[in-house]
Design brief:
single chain; about 150 residues; alpha+beta; Methionyl-tRNA Fmet Formyltransferase, Chain A, domain 2; 7-stranded antiparallel beta sheet; 3 helices; AL1L2 dehydrogenase; Formyl_transferase-like_C_sf
Length: about 150
């Protein structure tokens, strides 16, 4: 009660917090979140998950910055997939039906589920090589009639 009264009266002591021993890390910046490939799979996973969603761990693929989201450690045999060259990685990644498999320097694997490009477009990692495909929406006769009624 006494402390509350001191605060209310504006007489409470103000002691600045010392800087030594402080644990505040500050705001992470995108340029500091680049993935360092010379580490084990567990460290890669922790780096990606630690930067998920902001600022996002990234690497350079085909000359553009690609941000990795949603990683998990993969404890299985190497899955079938299409190779993807990643700048700085000692071994190419694999685009599989479940996502992008990347390798640590210990040979173990990490599965990344989503990728985001510099333009902000996010895709499932498993669709990396089908990004450029255009799909058109085909309406049935009933749907066309409904669309016309709505117009």
């Amino acid at each position: 009660v006494e402390a509350v009264h001191l605060i209310a009266d504006g007489k409470a002591p103000r002691i600045p917090q010392p800087k030594e021993g402080a644990t505040y890390e500050g705001i992470q910046k995108k340029e500091n979140a680049e993935i360092s490939w010379n580490q084990p799979a567990a460290a890669l996973h922790n780096w990606i998950r630690g930067h998920d969603k902001v600022p996002g761990a990234w690497a350079t693929i085909d000359g553009q910055v690609v941000t990795f989201y949603g990683s998990s450690l993969l404890d299985a045999s190497v899955p079938a997939g299409q190779e993807l060259s990643i700048k700085g990685a000692s071994r190419p990644g694999l685009v599989t039906k479940n996502g992008l498999v990347i390798f640590g320097n210990d040979g173990k694997m990490v599965l990344v589920r989503n990728l985001q490009f510099e333009d902000g477009k996010m895709i499932p990692a498993s669709k990396y090589f089908s990004v450029d495909e255009n799909t058109t929406l085909e309406l049935t006769e009933e749907e066309k009639k409904m669309a016309e009624d709505i117009r």
